[in-house]
């Protein structure tokens, strides 16, 4: 493939120092809603501080993740393979994508968590409690941010986004990613490799992602077609919110679904991140809200359900633009 045919981000290795927007959720509602709308339009990612999630909830789940990834390979494999849920090692999705990581992918439904916990932990009830408390906290945070977005966009029914992820049938997902540090060994080691792809470039298909990592970096976002990757500094005490494709479609492209990737360096420490992906129920229709459609901004895609979009995502490769499949006439 000629270099020019690749998306700009994949052609270039350069990075750019840009501050990711940071929003203090304890400020006045009208200020916060304006700030997050702007961040979603310009970046598709922002950090929240004063988020109200108790540290105890985050640290308990982090400890469960550390304990799981610290197990012998044979024990971890008992929780796999990830098809798509379960333990995965290097294989991402179902179509041959690879990354330098191991992960646990879980449906956020309480019954599913309780069932999976049996193969994940020696104390399944403790794991289930930690995961469910975290998921509840993430659902609350995501709903609050989505309501603020509804307000900032002056949508009459301000819970139009949040009710999708609050629905008992919501298809939300919890994910742990572990990028192990590879220590340099022996006299022939060639130093650190700084561009091993941990998780390749993609946008998240869901409505909203909440990401939290330990203090090891690696996450980068690509904003424009300028080929520059922007490092996202790790901050274990705060959360990054990332706009997914579904919210991009609902706002007819007013919000950007941030393309991101993770580099796994061979020097330094291991990175562990935990993501909550807030999704609608499988039968929910993803179609732009009427107030965003006009003759100047016609709808770009035919209406589709979250289930259809998820199926398209799982039939594609990581970096593919799955939305093209929903253009009228295709
Ligand atoms: C990206 C966001 C979430 O991690 C995820 C991923 C999923 C998987 O790893 O199983 C996908 C990927 C993600 C998008 C395209 C498809 C599906 C791997 C892949 C190649 C859980 C999700 O929902 O979509």
Characterization of the model:
It is a single chain. With 330 residues, the protein is of the alpha+beta class. Helix content is 30%, strand content 22%. It contains nine helices and 14 strands. The strands form three sheets. The chain has an eight-stranded mixed sheet. The chain has a four-stranded antiparallel sheet with strand order 6-11-8-9, with no helix packed on it. It is globular, with a radius of gyration of 19 Å. The model is unreliable at 1-12 (pLDDT under 50). Bound molecules: gibberellin A4. The site of gibberellin A4 has 17 residues, from strand 4, strand 5 and helix 9.
Topology (SSEs and partners):
Elements: H1 8-11, E1 22-24, H2 29-42, E2 45-49, H3 55-69, H4 73-77, E3 86-92, E4 97-107, H5 110-120, H6 124-152, H7 162-166, E5 173-179, E6 197-202, E7 208-213, E8 219-222, E9 229-231, E10 239-243, H8 245-250, E11 259-263, E12 271-278, E13 285-286, E14 304-305, H9 306-314
Bound molecules: gibberellin A4 (GA4).
Give the distinct bound molecules.
Answer: gibberellin A4
Q: What global shape is seen?
A: globular
Q: How many individual helices?
A: 9
Strands ordered across the widest β-sheet: 1-2-10-7-12-5-4-3
Q: Tell me the structural class.
A: alpha+beta
Radius of gyration: 19 Å
Q: Spans with pLDDT under 50 lasting ≥5 residues? A: 1-12
How confident overall, as mean pLDDT? 91
- Oligomer description: single chain
């Amino acid at each position: 493939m000629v270099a020019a045919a690749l998306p700009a981000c994949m052609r270039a290795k350069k990075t750019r120092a840009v501050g990711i927007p940071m929003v203090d959720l304890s400020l006045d509602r009208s200020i916060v809603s304006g700030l997050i709308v702007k961040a979603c339009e310009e970046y598709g990612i922002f950090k929240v501080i004063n988020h109200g999630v108790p540290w105890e909830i985050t640290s308990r789940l982090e400890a469960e993740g550390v304990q799981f990834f610290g197990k012998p390979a044979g024990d971890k494999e008992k929780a796999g393979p990830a098809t798509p849920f379960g333990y995965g090692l290097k294989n991402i999705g179902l179509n041959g994508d690879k990354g330098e990581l191991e992960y646990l992918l879980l449906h956020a439904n309480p019954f599913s968590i309780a069932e999976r916990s049996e193969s994940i932990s020696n104390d399944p009830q403790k794991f289930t409690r930690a995961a469910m408390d975290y998921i509840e906290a993430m659902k609350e945070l995501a709903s609050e941010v989505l309501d603020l977005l509804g307000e900032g966009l002056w949508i009459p029914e301000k819970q139009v986004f949040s009710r999708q992820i609050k629905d008992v049938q919501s298809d939300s997902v919890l994910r742990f990613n572990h990028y192990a540090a590879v220590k340099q060994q022996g006299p022939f080691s060639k130093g650190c490799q700084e561009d091993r792809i941990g998780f390749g470039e993609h946008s998240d298909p869901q409505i909203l992602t909440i990401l939290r990592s330990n203090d090891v970096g690696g996450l980068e976002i690509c904003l424009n077609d300028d080929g520059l990757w922007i490092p996202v500094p790790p901050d274990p005490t705060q959360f990054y919110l990332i706009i997914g494709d579904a919210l991009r479609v609902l706002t007819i492209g007013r919000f950007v679904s941030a393309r991101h990737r993770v580099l796994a360096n061979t020097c330094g420490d291991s990175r562990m991140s935990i993501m909550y992906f807030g999704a609608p129920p499988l039968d929910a229709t993803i179609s732009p809200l009427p107030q965003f459609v006009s003759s100047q901004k016609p709808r770009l895609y035919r209406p589709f359900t979250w289930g259809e979009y998820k199926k398209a995502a799982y039939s594609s490769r990581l970096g593919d633009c799955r939305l093209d499949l929903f253009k009228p006439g295709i």
